[in-house]
């Protein structure tokens, strides 16, 4: 299925192809235990790779702010205007192997959207998103 999403102010917009786990049928999501993801309390949605992510706005990821990891091999992309962390990509060494990573911050998926229910409640979001 294709999921649409973006940051809060609309500078970053994307769509991505998500392939559920073939056994469980669930989306491949996890709570990362790295210090950055813990600070954000982000839930990462795994994509198969960058080919399944299409940046609709801005024109290229060079126009998106990023925060490189200490290893410099993984970048975390966020909106410089509204501050929302949108995705993370790169590779890193783990237990002697190179692991490739491409994850989207699941909370940036547009709501409502067919096939994806994230709120778990029927509460309407606060208009404009800021209190
Ligand atoms: Zn923004």
List the bound ligands: zinc ion
What fraction strand? 35-45%
Strand runs, count = 9
CATH class: Mainly Beta
Structural class: mainly beta
* Weakly predicted, low-confidence segments: none
GO molecular function, one term: carbon-sulfur lyase activity
Protein name: CENP-V/GFA domain-containing protein
Pfam families: GFA
Keywords: Metal-binding, Zinc
Key traits:
single chain, 131 residues, mainly beta, Metal Binding Protein, Guanine Nucleotide Exchange Factor, Chain A, 6-stranded antiparallel β-sheet, 3-stranded antiparallel β-sheet, 1 helix, 5% helix, globular, binds zinc ion
Structure overview:
- The protein has 1 helix and 9 strands; from the N terminus they run βββαββββββ.
- By secondary structure, the chain is mainly beta.
- It has a single domain (2-108), classed as Metal Binding Protein, Guanine Nucleotide Exchange Factor, Chain A, CATH 2.170.150.
- The strands form 2 sheets. The protein has a 6-stranded antiparallel β-sheet with strand order 3-4-9-8-7-6, with no helix packed on it. A 3-stranded antiparallel β-sheet has the order 1-2-5, with no helix packed on it.
- Strand 1 (2-6) and strand 2 (13-17) form a beta hairpin.
- The radius of gyration is 15 Å and the shape is globular.
- The model has no long low-confidence stretch (mean pLDDT 88).
- The chain binds zinc ion.
- Residues 7-9, 11-12, 79, 81-82, 84 line the site of zinc ion.
């Amino acid at each position: 299925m294709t999921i649409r999403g973006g940051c809060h102010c609309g500078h970053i917009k994307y769509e991505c192809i998500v392939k559920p786990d073939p056994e469980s049928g669930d989306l491949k999501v996890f709570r990362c235990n790295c210090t950055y993801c813990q600070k954000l309390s982000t839930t990462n949605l795994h994509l198969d790779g960058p080919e399944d992510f299409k940046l609709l706005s801005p024109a290229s990821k060079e126009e998106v702010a990023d925060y490189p990891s200490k290893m410099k091999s993984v970048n975390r992309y966020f909106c410089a205007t509204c501050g929302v962390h949108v995705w993370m990509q790169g590779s890193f060494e783990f237990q002697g192997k190179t692991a490739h990573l491409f994850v989207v911050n699941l909370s940036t998926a547009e709501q409502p959207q067919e096939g994806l229910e994230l709120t778990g409640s029927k509460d309407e979001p606060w208009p404009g998103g800021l209190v």
